[in-house]
Amino acid sequence: MIMTQEREILKAKKQFEQLCELVRDATRREQRTDEVESRLFVELLAIGHSLLESFVAAVGDGDRGRQVVHDGQPLRRSKKKHRRRYVSVFGEHRLRRYVYARREKQKIHWSPVDEQLGFPESEYSYLLQNWVQRLCLQESFDESRRSLAELLGISIPVRTLESMNQQMAQAVEGFRQQLPPPEEDEQLLVYANDCKGVPMRRPPPEARPRSRRRRKGEKANKKQMACVGSAYSIARHVRSPDEVLDQWKRQATARGRPRPQNKRVWAEMTRALQDDQTYNGKTLVFVQQAIDLHQRDPERQKTVLCIMDGERALWKAQQEWLRRGVGILDIYHVLERLWDCAHCQHPEGSHEAEQFVAHRLRLLLEGKVGYVIGGLKRLQSQHRVGSSKARTLRATIQYYENNRQHMKYNEYLAAGYPIGSGVAEGACRHVVKDRLEQTGMPWTVPGAQAMLDLRSTYINGDWHDFQEHRVQIEQNRLYEKNAA
Asked: Residues 425, 194: contact at Cβ < 8 Å?
């Protein structure tokens, strides 16, 4: 085997010499830098392939004798060498090695070569899986396939990429459980939640209704909500209603505003887990946040805030899992309702509409929710509005009345609390929308959840540590007994 390794190393040396000559020739011919760069990259991949071949060849063919006792049981060597395909970032490798089983043609119990080299269960190297799934987190599986073929000359089928994505995501939960809690210095712990629709794949023909035609505005691929939760710590930032209103008018970030620290995000679909029971995505997110809260504040010394929109299911889950939290209705959702009401009276983009919103926003920030509700009721009764506008006003009035206990903005501002769920809104965009809502991307629930798990891991800044974790877990599962 030493001879085989030396042969591959000599091959690599010859390739390197040819590479040096390529550079000399390009200099004489005055080629453009990008042309030389492209050729160098291709040739460097070929050198890497040869060197990796030499490394693998040095291990040998795995022959440990005709019969061995391994892991407490007698095993027999295969009569012929078994083939194995291994695809690295340098290209495809074909191995032939002996394996051991109880009897010929039975399940393989031990492959000395695979164990010594730490091969993954898949035929694709850990590094290649890492790289290609980073591509898949940002763009479609088909586009990732194209990018990989363009960059490395390696073709992986789309279905394989999808399967690889779901298989990799199975390690996310275990990785989360072993993460150490962040070291918190700030007094406020904020938990924010929101929901974002994921376009779902159409059911099979036999499961579709036969006669009903889609109604106006109804889409073939319906959406299922993913609940997106975030957690972070932040320093208190006391400000007045005037300061908030001035910031809103200028649409600029306030100077001196503290930045969120130790942000984490989760995203969960409603789905069946191992016990075949259906778990609501909102509940799953709140469970994650409850665990996070216990880890960050085991002594219950910090102030906990929960910032959400007015969805009743979210507040119900908050009362069950984050009862300590001070509930705050997200001011951005409150503003959306105000704008809807303003456009019932004034044209969109008009100065009058802006003044309508600014006046009522000031009242809300001063804690005068009742004044705003009363004003909207008078507007509804004193002015003639169409049926759709009347529904808008009624819905806003009901929304404010239902959430009045979470709209004490004057108290929140005086205590230095944040009142907007910008982090959750950003998480909805980064985790869900930027990838799962791209054109022509319907999902199954398992596929969507796998992508959400991996994207949240990446966005949390844990991708490198996660890869190390999941590789170690698989190596232990494949080879730990043998190593003992």
From this structure: yes
Phi, psi of 256 (to 5 degrees): 80, 0
Distance CA(324)–CA(286), nearest Å, equals 13
B/e letters for 168-195, b = 16+ CB within 10 Å, e = fewer, are: bbebbeebbeeeeebebebebbbbbbbb
DSSP reduced 3-state for 123: coil
Closest to 95 (Cα-Cα) out of 130, 128, 55, 131:
55
* Residues present in the chain in total: 484
In order of 81, 124, 140, 148, 291, the CA distances from 136 in angstroms are 36, 15, 6, 10, 29
118 conformational bin, left if phi > 0, alpha if psi -120 to 50, beta if neither: left
Q: Which of 293, 292, 312, 317 is nearest to 303 (CA)?
A: 293
CB burial of 102-118 (b: ≥16 within 10 Å; e: otherwise) equals eeeeeeeebbbbbbebe
Local mean pLDDT, 10-residue blocks, the chain (484 residues):
81 94 94 95 96 94 94 92 96 96 89 96 98 96 96 96 97 95 89 92 58 49 88 94 87 73 94 81 95 94 95 94 94 94 92 94 96 91 74 94 96 96 79 85 92 96 97 93 46
